Amino acid sequence: MAINVDSVYKTVLYLLNKEQRGYIQPDEFNRLATQVQKEVFEEYFSDANQLIRKDQSNVQNDSEFFNHTQDIEYKLYPFRIESNTVFTYDVGSTTWTSTENVYKVGDVIANYTVNQNPNLNSVAELCTIREYNTITRSKLTAPTKTYPLFYVSRSIDTFENTTSSLKVFPLPDSLTCNVLTTPTNVYWGYSIGNVNQFVYNPSLWSEIQNPLGSLNFQLDISEQTNVIIRILKYCGVIINNPQVVAMANSEIQQSNLNLKS
After folding, report:
1. What is the pTM of this model?
2. What is the pLDDT of residues 238-254, one digit of tens each?
3. Which of residues 181, 210, 229 is at a domain's end?
4. CB neighbour list of residue 182: distance below 8 Å, 6 or more residues apart
5. Mean pLDDT of the chain
6. CA torsion 246→189→11→261, rounded to 10°?
7. Which domain holds residue 190?
8. Which of 166, 181, 196 lies at the terminal end of a domain, its last residue?
9. How is residue 78 annotated by DSSP?
């Protein structure tokens, strides 16, 4: 279950206004919420690495409901896509181009049709561009349909949209990829009421069809408290209130200590 953007915004406003500490406009909140979601998402990877080191030292809890590594993996599910439509083949560039905003590429399965029956589904090995060029040019080390090779490249257009591409050798008939996507932006959509107040618009946001709609956090509901505290920290900077910043930083540090100690 994802975090409801309206619930977070109202909680943030309540905490700020409780002692007349300031007010955050919806557009400001949307920027802060988007930034916080990205921060929480990116911290999953460093947290997981630290927990894996604990596991290697046999100090990690492995009980059913208290395995932190599994918890992080579960929290990444909303960002995970495993499909044969994530990348489509571009004949012009001879690469497989993403249809999603890809953050990390996991397993890449190259699917080959061999005499129609059976199909050969091989796990491609990731390498650098330099390794790819060296290996594919050699007759002795050239990849085969059983042991294919691939590398990842990324490009950014004038609108700062990132496109990920895969170069796979030998060229497969299709690809099945497991990827993590970059978190989307967060929007608390609104209309203007009859006394110029902001009225929440729960309809789904769409850049073209409904730019005034809302888009919830992708983060799991268990992160709601963490998200609210982090947004409050940024709010304290905006309204120039060091007490809010100090309070939020203290809560964040205590939460990190509980998780990582």
Report:
1. 0.82
2. 666 666 666 656 666 65
3. 181
4. 38, 79, 101, 102, 103, 162
5. 86
6. -60
7. 5-76+185-260
8. 181
9. G
